[in-house]
Amino acid sequence: MISFKLTLLSTIIFSSAAIAQHTSLRSGEQWPDNNGVHVNAHGGGMLYQKGTYYWFGEHKISGRGGNAAQVGVHCYSSKDLYNWKDEGIAFQVDTVNANSEVAKGCVIERPKVVYNKKTGKYVMWFHLELKGKGYEAARAAVAVSDKVTGPYKYLHSFRPNAGKWPLNASASDTTEVAGGDASIANRPGNELAENGFFLRRDHKGGQMSRDMTIFQDDDGKAYLIGSAEENYTLNISELTPDYTNVTGKWTRIFPGGHNEAPALLKKDGKYFLITSGCTGWDPNAARSAVANTIWGPWKSLGNPCIGDDAHLTFHSQSTYIFPVAGKKDAFIFMADRWTPRNPIDGRYIWLPVQFEQEKPVLKWMDNWTLDFFNEKTAPKTATGK
Ligand code: GAL
After folding, report:
1. Does residue 87's CB lie within 6 angstroms of at least one atom of ligand 1?
2. Bridge partners, residue 76, by sequence
3. Which residue in 88, 205, 308, 336 is a FRET match for 10, CA 20 to 30 A apart?
4. Domain edges within the chain
5. CA gyration radius for the chain?
6. CB neighbours of 378 closer than 8 A, spacing ≥ 6?
7. 3-class SS at 377?
């Protein structure tokens, strides 16, 4: 009996040690969840609901093929942003029907969830690639749930804005070049984007939609921001009032600019965008931009990162920016440090978004707390890298 009690006691002590409370944000390290397992929510997004943050992201597996969707979208919850509880798989791939658009082995990237007040539903958007087709489908996909943690039910996937020209299309954007578009098809991609070639090519079937985010504005409208035109152009599309489709009102930004990994925030009525360049899983220099309305015009603000490894976004790629509840002008930049040879081990880089001369600025901090946002005027305690 005594030995049983001792065993029980040591089990309790051991388990509480295994789930030690976290008290700060440590970018680049393993982030153990409530079970002591590194959080598996890559390319993620955040939803805040009644005192709880919900983090949704790509569930990766180890080794080859680990980037494809073998499982689905993983959800975690937290009240303090340091300690994460595993809420399980919010959206499951289809393991029964191999012909399903979301069959096991498809590609599901950058899931983002928004809550729709009008319908009372949670709406998940993600970038979908069909199984065995590489990255050629380039679709946006939607799934819905009555409960924040799921299960999310698959609704549909599509290339947005079929048959609709963007708000900022010029006459030449919508008109084939003299001699026909086929005559310029082998020009460099950035030229073709600037010229409107991809826009016209995809007009009928819908524009490509790869790396994406969803931005919910304070007036209740929401937008899909996604890489289109072979990743040369970023498109912003208004969502329908129930958030499950696009309305056909949309705009193109930076045609030929080669932007991926979009993340948005709104501060003092202005919209700020952070993106990456296009180098696959390898990091590159981030870019930033500002606009007075979501429809632009967007003005480029250059690389928001400052300090060592700023040219590589501190070895990461943006995925989302979210406001910290209850703190003014407090935004957290979420990014991924991808590890394509063992995708499950990808790390998370979270940094506060600072503002200097009306520009968003990111500085490396390897260990910080939300108190940072209370010390706006004090010098920042960056610990270096
Ligand atoms: C990155 C993109 C990721 C993933 C990857 C595949 O550029 O941001 O989400 O698509 O390419 O190579």
Report:
1. no
2. 55, 86
3. 88
4. 24-374
5. 21
6. none
7. coil
